[in-house]
Amino acid sequence: MVPMRFGLPSIRFTRRRVAAGLALLTGLGALITWAAWPAPKNYTARDALLNVMSGPAGNEPVTLDTTFFVPDGADADNPVPAILLAHGFGGTKRSMRADAEDLANAGYAVLTWTAQGFSGSTGKIHLNSPDYEVRDARSLVDWLAARPEVLKDPTGDPKVGVVGGSYGGALALLLAGHDPRVDAIVPMITWNDLSKAFLPEATGQPPTAGVFKKQWAGVFFSSGSNTASGGLAGALAGIGRGDDEDQPRMPETGTTSTSPDCGNFARDICDTYLRIAATGKATEADLALLRRSSPTSVLDRIKAPTMLIQGQADSLFPLTEADANARGIAANGTPVHVDWFTGGHDGGAGPQADSDRGRYLTLTWLDHYLRGKGDVPDSQFTYSRITGFNTSSSNRRPTTSAFSVERYPGLGGTGNTAVDVAGKPQQIFNPPGGTPAAMSTIPGASSLSSLISGISLEIPGQHADFLSPPLTGTLDVLGTPTVTIRAASPTGEAVLFVKLYDVDPSSGASLPFGLVAPVRLTGLQADIAKATPVTVTLPAIAARFEAGHRLMITISTTDQGFATPAEPAVYTVGVGVDDRSTIGLPLVTGTPIATQETLWRWLLAGLVATLAVGLAVVLFVARRRRHNAEIKVIDEYADTPLVVRGLRKEYADGFVAVAQVDFTVERGQVVGLLGPNGAGKTTSLRVLMGLTRPTKGEVLVFGHRLTPGAPVLSRLGALVEGPGFLPHLSGIENLRLYWRSTGRPDAEAHLDEALEIAGLGDAVQRKVRTYSHGMRQRLAIAQAMLGLPELLVLDEPTDGLDPPQIAEMRKVLREYARDGRAVLVSSHLLAEVEQTCTHVVVMHKGEIVASGEVADIVGDSPVAQFEVSDVPAAEQVLASLAAVRSVNRDGRSGLVVDLNGTSRADVVSALVGAGVGVDRVVPRRRLEDAFLSLVGGNTRASGER
């Protein structure tokens, strides 16, 4: 939203001012360039197809598609440590290109490869089986040992580390457990035990009683069935920052043909998935196969120092997976560092500060254990927490702060507290087939902001809520909360999903990172009074719960991510004993970590202060010069809301955005500004709003020549370039703050009328950060109408509104203009313009190609639509009329007829004479037809600025 009631004074650019400004900008630009300039390429990349022997007996040939990155200067006389860089599930070696380049520029020889079964390599997918993918990786270590550029240990084996995310992270752990030559590993966002990851159960039961994570399992299976990267595969690609589609592809190398039911999966893996997906449960044999591809099977053998980086926004491999890996490896006396960041499989890489910290920790770890460089990395635990939002952009990106704790506290924190929750037992319904289902997160959405804003959806009648009193103080929770629940079921069994919500009194409930605790209970009584309480371990989180908020335990019967009983049933659920329970909360007090972002903040603050002083001087001089300037009014147009004359906008590079535009908006009119992308609409509106200066021509608002900051702008309201509000304020607070900024009396705001237009009801009292896009749009339109300006300019006003709201907006705009005011609307919805506007202005290639009343622009049409009682009979009658050019059906009772000059009355007479009833006849031509004829049907973008 660009406020148009006030602005900066018009500033005259003299040679001296331009020179001073250029000097300042040059200095600032040099600093930014120095900080942002990409590192030079200091390596050579070599593609190769390597043949290895795979399988249990090591006699199955597989060809792996590889790329070897060698730093400049590395040779037999100057060998360097090596890194195996493994991709995530569904990715390829190209997924890791950007990371490989970073590590090569840091002085490491890096080998990336596409795992067998994926595009570019042969073989089948065995889910990191020790006999296949792990054996392949051991062969790659053998290959590195033979390279003269690679540094060797005294025993002759290569100095090598393994880095990977998700699928690649598990490979790093498994390889370290099977090959003692590995010297350091950095596994990221990966698993400990696949059986527990895909069949979790939050009361401590084994995976045989687990609740099947069907949605994530389906994503895995789908991306393995179609091994081209991207799509679902991209959700699993791990830490890779490369783009497969932007990188050159190796030729296909005879990948083993896929089967219709299994794709590129090995038969035993495929059969296991199909069996579990069909039944929702796993056998001991299924679990044994999954555990064989899990790091839990080799943790006691890992001697390589391990940096574990795990994501908090991760419903696939949650923090508990990294905790199990950390405890198992540390039990050997192996150095372990654990870092939690705010991204993950559901949240992407997280904010930039988290990515920077992860890269720094990784390089520090590898530099010490592969090069012997630097002090021994400490065993501190590091983590980040959401501390705010960047409101400078429309997508409301979260910001984080990093903290450290002297040692890894596990999931129990360094302290604990308890918060009471209470509520009577409630009945909840398990729908047949688990549909409809509650939604907690979208697997692989990679949108951290949407998780924080609250993507969860509970289905009425399928959940029960139990609330705590308002918190008396702020709680920094880190680890796994616990709560005691009870359940009764007429079937003796129940699958439930337990969640911990943070309830803000002003913005409502949010589910941290969309995480849930699945529970399968058996041996249940039918009477809740006889139910035995069970303790549920909730998902691990790092979150702050503010004073005044409430905690809410929600127990639901469904979740779209999991398999649930197909049979309908009504359960009764409650908390604790005597309708009360306590939520056990692990707490931690971390020490803030200074980040690169913090250091830059001080530098930028100094630059901003310097710029502010310079700008203040310029504004002071400009105001003094402007103070006595005479404001001229062209009497002829003093009562005309808008006159655009000879408008032209040409940019310095010669691009002509607007060639010649002339039009007028009179009182009482609703004028639609139309044109394809590149026609010049946006540029014209920006000139009209005083946001940019025209090359030629002028814009008159009530006879005043428009300049930035012109007082006449107080008679104009606008919604241009999207709404922008302070998210921590309510809707009504934003409106009041905006009006106060205009300096006009509160009585002139007409706030009640604006609120009625917004139609937000009680939502105007809620914080704007809880608004949907459509709600923000309605609030922006109300803001534009504050003070009831005489000229209203709206750019895509119905964007984000649903059909009833669009219909209401039509009525509002027409009534607004009838009161002697005027409205200019720019829109791409031609049907809405036709129903809303009295006049239209059509632009094409920077010029006006038509203007006038809508009816005149639409004109008459040779095509008409007939609604008849007997379509086949009507078709025969019309076919017999020589002048009729064509007849086409339109629905069950409609015909579209090209009359070719025949009058509609003659056609109706012919139909009625033949016994065919005619219910309705309307011209077929609409504004869209006229628009396409005016612009030649070409609406493709042509570089509009």
How far apart are the termini? Answer: 18 Å
Number of domains: 4
Gross CATH architecture of the largest domain: 3-Layer(aba) Sandwich
Average pLDDT taken over every residue: 82
Secondary structure tally: strands = 38
Largest sheet: 11 strands, mixed
The CATH class of the largest domain, by name, is: Alpha Beta
Read across the widest sheet, the strand sequence of neighbours is 1-2-4-3-5-6-7-8-9-10-24
Strand content: 25-35%
Give a description of the structure:
With 945 residues, the chain is an alpha/beta fold. The protein folds into four domains: 262 residues, Rossmann fold (3-Layer(aba) Sandwich); 176 residues, Galactose-binding domain-like (Jelly Rolls, Sandwich), CATH 2.60.120.260; 220 residues, Rossmann fold, CATH 3.40.50; 65 residues, Alpha-Beta Plaits, CATH 3.30.70.100. It has 23 helices and 38 strands. Helix 18 links the parallel strand 31 and strand 32. Helix 3 packs across helix 4 and helix 16 runs antiparallel to helix 17. The longest helix is centred in the middle third of the chain and has 32 residues. The two termini are 18 Å apart.
Topology:
Blueprint: H1 15-36, E1 43-54, E2 60-71, E3 82-86, H2 97-105, E4 109-113, H3 133-145, E5 160-165, H4 167-178, E6 182-188, H5 194-198, H6 214-225, H7 232-235, H8 267-279, H9 284-292, E7 306-311, H10 319-330, E8 336-341, H11 352-371, E9 381-390, E10 397-405, E11 415-422, E12 426-430, H12 448-453, E13 463-467, E14 475-479, E15 482-488, E16 494-504, E17 508-510, E18 517-521, E19 534-537, E20 541-545, E21 550-556, E22 569-575, E23 580-587, E24 591-592, H13 596-627, E25 642-650, E26 656-665, E27 670-674, H14 681-688, E28 696-701, E29 704-705, E30 716-719, H15 731-741, H16 751-758, H17 773-784, E31 791-795, H18 803-818, E32 822-826, H19 830-836, E33 839-844, E34 847-853, H20 854-858, E35 863-868, H21 871-879, E36 886-889, E37 894-898, H22 904-913, E38 918-923, H23 927-935
Parallel strand pairs: 3-4, 3-5, 5-6, 6-7, 7-8, 8-9, 27-32, 27-33, 30-31, 31-32
Antiparallel strand pairs: 1-2, 2-4, 9-10, 10-24, 11-23, 12-22, 13-21, 14-20, 15-19, 15-22, 16-17, 16-18, 16-21, 25-26, 25-28, 28-29, 33-34, 35-37, 35-38, 36-37
Helix pairs in contact: 3-4, 16-17
Transmembrane segments: 599-622
GO molecular function: hydrolase activity
Pfam families: ABC_tran, Peptidase_S15, PepX_C
